[in-house]
Amino acid sequence: MGFVPSWGYLALCRVLLGAFEAGFFPAMVYIISTWYRRHEVQKRLAVFYLVGIFLGAFSAVFAAALSLLHGTYGIAGWAWIFIIEGAITIGFGFVAWAFLPGFPDQNNFLTEEETSIVLQRVEKDRGDAVPDVLTFEKVVRHLSDWKIWAIGLMYMCATVPAYAISLFVTIILSSMGWSSLQSMLLSAPPYVFTAFTAMLFSWISDKYCRRAAVIAIQACITLTGLCLMGFTPRPGWRYAGVFLASAGSSGCVIGILAYSSNNVVTHTKRAVTTAVTVSLGGIGGIFASLVFRQVDYPRYMPGIYATIGCQFLLLFLLETTTVFFSYKNKSILEGTATEPLEGQEGFMYTL
């Protein structure tokens, strides 16, 4: 993308980048969820996700510094951003090839005794330490489970404000009266705040074994931030809204990933669930890019309204799944259930 001669080639490269990158995030979430017990996973997902968020906090600042190379070797400043950041990414790709672990039963960095301990912990927690065989029939059966789609839609709703802020934060800040350079510099602090709060809520969620309540709190934080961004005239308060909307939405993204992985059994269903959830998150990114339109500058009210609506839909779906999970758990405790939950004896849904 740094050496293309026209926008057409740039668009083609961007399509290829998206196609090859698409599997990375769901694959990493899937692998992480297979290594830990259910109430250990959110902190680990948070660390993985927030490393990207924290580095992203300074991406605009880094991009601003790289743009100062404009004209060096006859290359434009924007092209230097793609070239240098792309080279760094490729370098980490080689590192990942050498060191990235696979599934617990296939790892090559633990001893047999250590691997056995990992597998025993997972097996005792949910009974799916060893991968099952993926078949077309299983994929169809998993895709017919309404809970996967409900949680996937929740994830989509959470990603809309997260993507909107990620894609348009500098534009949103410039609409508050700051210059382009000031907007790029001011885009970093909200992400630092996001990293801290999301890690805190993840720790609370794991410690107290509660997913839905923590997600609901963070969705309300997102709503508060969006209202400040959309309905207050003062730039300072609107900037505070960016902090809250970013923190709440990113926290919801992590919480919903944990909520999703906690309530499925078997590797195949975990794989299908993760793929559906993250794919719908990508649709949330498309949605965000369409509702925050340049013609609505500087307030972007249609985008604000749409994003607020998504948070209410998230809360409705969260209540629906939580009530269902609670009812099913109660039927197991009272002995009225006709079959084990998720086909696994002793399994209970995480609320």
UniProtKB/TrEMBL annotation:
Membrane-topology descriptor: Multi-pass membrane protein
A single cellular component GO annotation: membrane
Subcellular location: Membrane
UniProt keyword annotation of Chaperone present: no
Keywords: Membrane, Transmembrane, Transmembrane helix, Transport
InterPro entries: MFS, MFS_dom, MFS_trans_sf
Keyword Transmembrane: yes
N-terminal signal peptide: none
Domain Major facilitator superfamily (MFS) profile positions: 1-321
Transmembrane segments: 6-33, 45-69, 75-100, 148-173, 185-205, 212-231, 237-259, 271-292, 304-325
GO molecular function: transmembrane transporter activity
Listed SUPFAM superfamilies: MFS general substrate transporter
Name of the protein: Major facilitator superfamily (MFS) profile domain-containing protein
Species annotation: Cyclocybe aegerita
